[in-house]
Automatic annotation (TrEMBL), chain A:
Catalysis: reaction(s): L-glutamyl-tRNA(Gln) + L-glutamine + ATP + H2O = L-glutaminyl-tRNA(Gln) + L-glutamate + ADP + phosphate + H(+)
UniProt record, GO biological process: glutaminyl-tRNAGln biosynthesis via transamidation; mitochondrial translation
Comment field (misc): This protein may be expected to contain an N-terminal transit peptide but none has been predicted.
Protein name: Glutamyl-tRNA(Gln) amidotransferase subunit A, chloroplastic/mitochondrial
Transmembrane residue ranges: none
Main location class: mitochondrion
TrEMBL record, chain B:
PROSITE patterns named in the record: GATB
Catalysed reaction, written as an equation: L-aspartyl-tRNA(Asn) + L-glutamine + ATP + H2O = L-asparaginyl-tRNA(Asn) + L-glutamate + ADP + phosphate + 2 H(+); L-glutamyl-tRNA(Gln) + L-glutamine + ATP + H2O = L-glutaminyl-tRNA(Gln) + L-glutamate + ADP + phosphate + H(+)
Organism the protein comes from: Chloropicon roscoffensis
GO cellular component: chloroplast; glutamyl-tRNA(Gln) amidotransferase complex; mitochondrion
Subunit architecture: Subunit of the heterotrimeric GatCAB amidotransferase (AdT) complex, composed of A, B and C subunits.
Function text: Allows the formation of correctly charged Gln-tRNA(Gln) through the transamidation of misacylated Glu-tRNA(Gln) in chloroplasts and mitochondria. The reaction takes place in the presence of glutamine and ATP through an activated gamma-phospho-Glu-tRNA(Gln).
Designated name of the protein: Glutamyl-tRNA(Gln) amidotransferase subunit B, chloroplastic/mitochondrial
Gene label: GATB
Length: 591, 604
């Protein structure tokens, strides 16, 4: 952690109290004057929040919470610093949904600072750092929420025209949990429409050109490239420190792939570990809310807050219980050091399986990616792991089984967007103001759906309708379920939990580094789907996995994926944590 | 309606329940009109007409967060053990059409053809809250007040199963002698229509909660003599849980039916969306409209006795669709099946089957059998005929697949046993009880037809009333009076114990039946003890011989002319003297003793 100078603490606090808004009173008056007009304290705070991850491995979320808990910095000041950074970077990156605050609720700054002040009021009543930590473990941590997750006060468009004015009536369980833990929601991050895509280029909000800025979300490492998808906005925002943590959703790799492309840690928990309530469904049996953080530890702290059963989500798992917070939760598991190995070999005895099918040297996987996997294996050996190759013959079944399952469920989940219920920005169909214009209800629905849904959702709805229809359902959907079971069983059989030999599996997160914007090859849906080959099997099986940066290839970050047995998030975060420290990558994009 | 084998003179209470067809139509229409106007006034209904759409939809969506303070049913806890168990292959699959049945051909009116009938019934379960959210489940509320983001199908919302729904479904399944499955699953049934907020309905497709049961429906006909109820057995193929859709009210032309240039708006009331239903499907075991109606009636009785539903057909709590096909008697293969919907009374079930029989046989007779298409037809109550709604080619492919938002439904060990232990009395048992009390099949049939009446009667008898007498009062005078007063047994002031007391007063000679009859209106209106009422009004029967002799003597004295005529052989005048005595005593004289006294006085 970068040492926080005394000036911050001195400027920001009275004895225990917090003087909201003090640090940035001048910068907010003259926002665009840049650093020159800021106080020394403000500059120190920005350096602490936006600097690289230090040698001790504390990520921005941890730094922010520590500043609040221990040094009395106010949540409002931290939120303001992030708002300023967003304002500075958004024209280049476009990580966030513009005008995301629900009409009538004021400006983004109003909403964000009010929420921060609310946390400050709670904290003002507490005397010791320990009390503050217990009450609001993530105090002062800024949070980006993927636009397909409901956060009250913000629109939830899921990147679709069909929901362009939808104001969700309540928070998703994950957002609610994070807000209660002290997080401040700073905006809705852009995503592919309904989470269907790998580039974040298909969000409907990007249809309208923004003058003088990027038209689509950009990769902070290279502004001519995409951040990946579908949770690209979340990955870009965390990578560029616009927010400390971000929520994503992972249906077939939508958290891990952008995490790899943007050089951050992306965690996909076990299906059922985290509530889906409030997550706008794409494929309900595959969707999982996921965490983005700059470090594995940041992700672990986030998971501690959101993991656990939810009475509102019948598919959430009541057992096994998440590790109790009183014993340090996932965060402690994440930092855990193996007894015999000590600090030098913290993962001594851990068995890592390198999945042979994901490392084919036939050009399907980029050289730079293979290099990163090699580097990661080498580093893991250095940490005391036994690394050896394993085979997953059912690996090749994953992609077709995944797509058949996902499109089938998507065709069902998207039926409700019929243009009758959710007011859209663009009136549906011709003569929208004149009733159905003499058309039948069916014609009206068909026309609304055609104009409100983008190409990729329409394609998937059509495919899904086909795969479920009478006469084809058995040949496609039911066979996909059989294949899914096989993938699941086979993956489990490699794990110690299933009688196998590996504690975790290691694969590349994606076969390539970040794609160029508007890549022609990806216009072909099949090419785009191939990019998901490493990640979809994990969703089919429901297992947890984390993508952690393992190297750079031609100036772009490359991630590797660590897969664990069901409900073993602690184990994979542990591997990720030691791996990132051992590799010592300084991953701050050159902005 | 021609008198079929099942027809019998309805008792006064029944007449109330089964209104005749014409009055029914008017009532239905009146209700529709009022509902439509109130809906428009409320301005909270969703008009599917786009002109009014945006504003109302927005109002509706904004109003979604009003939560009712109704008692909540408990929701099923989530099952962790199944969270990794998504793709379990489904074991049981049900053939869509059952095989031909070897039931003996029943007598059908004229020809050598017979009808084969299967019935699908939707029964709304009487829970406090809806099937998958905590909105109130009530009939007749203002439109769109009992709604929430879950039952409106907002993005991101998830269903949670109401445990009470499972309990009531299992109870119904057991009463229908079904096999209750320890594990069942939920599926999505998908189609587009304005009444489906999510674009799919949560239902159970290939693994329903109950299968393979039967009902013995009584087919008693008034006027026939029998010692026990004659029944016909109808096998139940399956019973499954599903959610109801929104209720649509079409103004003017039906714009939702896909017709050209729909003139009127369609209003949607989402109060009904998500109300729990069980769908009960029979095997094609019935052969006449009477049998189909008898089955439907027995089913209604069962759900009412079980307390799982009001079974009110007019309110849509119980909705029957019948599948009708016609074949030559003795044939093994089934004919082409036609599904008839929109049957909102038992007589409609009977008439619709009869109509389809005539329609299909005449086509077969004319050699135009190929014109019988597999289709859905609507019953037109006014014209007493069915008309085509949609054919098989247009029929929806529901694209069923497992509902991923709900885990497999696994019953707690002992759950079914517990439900069984708490099983209320069934109509069949009620009928046996009544016959056991020495009542005739006809009386038992009436008393067991309605749960309220049956309970009232049993309580009355257990409070000491003589069974036959209590029965006569209930099905006779009391029913008639209540109908006159436009009240019913549940709301009238006289409790069963009081009726028993009245019966005992009659038995004990304290009052005459005639006096009792005179007291009934007041008892029904105000309640209170009949004994006290009799005493306070001084209506206690005069059974004192000396007192009666005195009164009789006075009458004989003041009517010398009549006495003379009577003694001269005009016997008919005896009645005159009885009347005079009753008049003098204001009806309080013990009739038997009056006779004795008069004879003594006149014949001396």
């Amino acid at each position: 952690m970068v040492p926080v100078k005394k000036s911050i603490a001195a400027a920001g606090t009275g004895r225990y109290g917090i003087r909201p808004g003090f640090l940035f009173c001048r910068t907010t008056q003259r926002k665009h004057d840049g650093y020159a007009t800021r106080t020394q304290a403000a500059r120190d705070l920005e350096h602490a929040l936006f600097g690289p991850v230090g040698t001790d491995g504390d990520g921005p979320a941890q730094v922010a919470a520590r500043l609040v808990h221990e040094q009395g910095v106010s949540c409002e000041d931290i939120a303001r610093a992030h708002l300023n950074r967003m304002e500075m970077l958004e024209p280049k990156l476009r990580s966030f949904l513009p005008n995301s605050v629900v009409q009538g609720r004021g400006t983004l700054a109003d909403v964000v600072l009010e929420e921060a002040r609310g946390h400050d009021r709670t904290l003002a009543k507490l005397v010791t750092a320990e009390e503050r930590r217990r009450a609001l473990p993530l105090a002062g941590v800024t949070l980006g929420v993927k636009d397909n997750i409901c956060a009250a006060g913000f629109r939830a468009t899921a990147g679709s025209l069909a929901l362009s004015r939808y104001a969700p009536p309540r928070d998703a369980t994950v957002v609610d949990n994070l807000r209660r833990a002290g997080c401040v929601v700073v905006g809705k991050t852009l995503c592919d429409e309904f989470g269907m895509g790998s580039t974040t280029e298909s969000s409907a909000s990007q249809l309208k050109d923004v003058v003088g800025g990027a038209a689509t979300t950009r990769n902070p490492w290279d502004l001519s490239r995409v951040p990946g998808g579908s949770s690209g906005g979340s990955a870009a925002a965390v990578s560029s420190r616009q927010c400390a943590l971000a929520l994503g959703t992972d249906t077939g790799g939508s958290v891990r792939q952008p995490a790899s492309f943007c050089g951050v840690v992306g965690l996909k928990p076990t299906y059922g570990r985290v509530s889906r309530f409030g997550l706008i469904a794409y494929a309900s049996s595959l969707d999982v809310p996921g965490c983005f953080g700059s470090t594995a530890q940041d992700c672990a702290r986030m998971l501690d807050v959101i993991a656990g059963p939810d009475p509102a989500d019948s598919s959430s798992a009541a057992l096994p219980h998440p590790p109790p917070l009183s014993e340090g939760g996932y965060e402690r598991l994440c930092r855990q050091v193996s007894g015999e190995g000590g600090d030098a070999k913290p993962l001594l005895g851990l068995k890592v399986g390198l999945v042979r099918e994901t490392l084919r040297r036939d050009g399907t996987v980029e050289e730079g990616v293979l290099g990163a996997v090699d580097a990661a294996s080498e580093a893991l050996r250095g940490l005391g792991c036994e690394v050896k190759e394993v085979s997953l013959p059912a690996f090749d079944l994953s992609l077709p089984a995944y797509y058949v399952t996902a499109v089938s469920e998507a065709s069902s989940n998207l039926s409700r967007y019929d243009g009758l219920r959710y007011p859209a920005e663009v009136e549906a169909g011709e003569g929208g103001d004149e009733g159905f214009g003499g058309r039948s209800l069916m014609a009206q629905i068909a026309s609304s759906r055609g104009s409100l849904l983008g190409d990729e959702p329409l394609r998937r709805i059509l495919m899904g309708t086909y795969t479920l229809s009478e006469g084809y359902g058995d040949a496609l959907y039911k066979r996909a379920q059989v294949a899914r079971k096989r993938v699941q069983q086979e993956m489990l059989a490699r794990m110690v939990a299933g009688g196998g030999e590996c504690d975790v599996l290691l694969t590349p997160t994606a076969p390539t580094t970040a794609y160029a914007c508007g890549d022609k090859e990806l216009q072909d849906p099949l090419q785009m789907y191939l990019g998901d080959v490493m990640t979809v099997g994990v969703n089919l099986a429901g297992f947890p996995a984390v993508s952690v940066p393992a190297g750079m290839s031609l100036g772009l970050p490359v991630g590797v994926q660590v897969i664990g047995a069901p409900f073993e998030e602690g184990a994979i975060l542990n591997v990720a944590h030691h791996l990132e420290r051992s590799l010592g990558l300084n991953l701050l994009p050159p902005l | 309606m021609a008198g079929g084998p099942l027809r019998r003179a309805p008792g006064p209470l029944e007449r109330k329940a089964n209104l005749d067809v014409t009055s029914l139509i008017i009532i239905t229409r009146a209700r529709t009109t009022t509902r439509t106007t109130t809906t428009t006034k409320q301005g909270r209904a969703v008009a599917c007409k786009a002109r009014t759409q945006s504003a109302t939809v927005r109002a509706l969506l904004a109003a979604t967060l009003t939560r009712s303070a109704a008692p909540r049913d408990r929701s099923i806890p989530w099952h962790h053990a199944r969270s990794l168990d998504w793709c379990r292959p489904s074991a049981a699959c049900f053939a869509s059409s059952a095989a031909a049945v070897d039931a003996p051909a029943k007598p059908v009116s004229t020809t050598e053809y017979e009808t084969v009938i299967g019935v699908e019934t939707h029964v709304q379960l009487d829970t406090n809250t809806k099937a998958f959210c905590s909105c109130k489940n009530e009939y007749g509320a203002k439109p769109n007040v009992n709604v929430c983001p879950v039952c409106l199908g907002h993005p991101g919302m998830l269903p949670t199963l109401n445990e009470r729904v499972v309990e009531l479904a299992v109870r119904t399944g057991m009463a229908l002698n079904c096999e209750v499955h320890q594990e069942s699953k939920f599926d999505r049934k998908q189609y587009f229509y304005g009444d489906l907020p999510k674009g799919y309905q949560i239902s159970q497709n290939d693994r329903p909660i109950c299968t393979d049961g039967f009902v013995d429906a009584p087919t008693f006909v008034v006027g026939t003599k029998c010692d026990a109820f004659p029944t016909t057995r109808v096998r139940i193929n399956r019973l499954h849980i599903e959610e109801d859709t929104a209720k649509l009210t079409h103004e003017g032309q039906d714009s939702l039916a896909g017709g050209e240039g729909g003139g009127g708006a369609t209003l949607a009331d989402y109060n009904r969306a998500g109300v729990p239903l069980v769908e009960i499907v029979t095997e094609p075991d019935m052969r006449t409209g009477e049998e189909a109606a008898a089955y439907a009636q027995e089913l209604r009785r069962i759900v009412r006795f079980l307390g799982v539903s009001s079974g009110n057909m007019q309110e849509g709590s119980l909705r029957c669709d019948v599948n009708v096909s016609v074949r030559r008697k003795g044939a093994q293969e089934l004919g082409t099946k036609v599904e008839v919907k929109n049957l909102n009374s038992f007589s409609a079930v009977r008439s619709a089957v009869d109509f389809e029989f005539r329609r299909q046989t005449s086509l077969l007779e004319a050699g135009r059998g190929s014109e019988i298409k597999q289709e859905t037809r609507l019953w037109d109550e006014q014209r007493m005929e069915t008309k085509s709604m949609r054919s098989k080619e247009e029929a929806a492919d529901y694209r069923y697949f497992r509902e991923p938002d709900l885990p497999f439904l696994a019953l707690r060990p002992g759950f079914a046993d517990q439900v069984n232990a708490e099983m209320p009395k069934l109509p069949r048992e009620a009928r046996d009880d009544l016959l056991g009390l020495g009542l005739s099949v006809a009386d038992a049939s009436i008393l067991s037809d309605d749960l309220g009446l049956f309970e009232y009667y049993t309580e009355c008898v257990s409070s000491g009333a003589e069974p036959k007498q209590a029965c006569n009062w209930l099905v006779g005078d009391i029913s008639a009076l209540l109908k006159e007063m436009k009240r019913d047994l549940d709301t009238c002031a006289m409790r069963p114990q009081q009726l028993a007391e009245m019966c005992q007063l009659i038995d004990g000679g304290t009052i005459s039946g005639k006096i009792a009859k005179g007291l009934l209106p007041e008892l029904l209106e105000k309640g209170g003890s009949p004994k006290e009422l009799v005493e306070s009004k001084g209506l206690v029967q005069i059974s004192d011989e000396g007192e009666l002799d005195k009164i009789v003597a006075e009458i004989v004295e003041s009517n010398p002319k009549q006495v003379e005529q009577y003694r001269g052989g005009k016997d008919k005048l005896f009645g005159f003297f009885v009347g005079q005595t009753m008049k003098a005593t204001k009806g309080r004289a013990n009739p038997k003793m009056v006779n004795d006294c008069l004879r003594r006085a006149l014949d001396q």
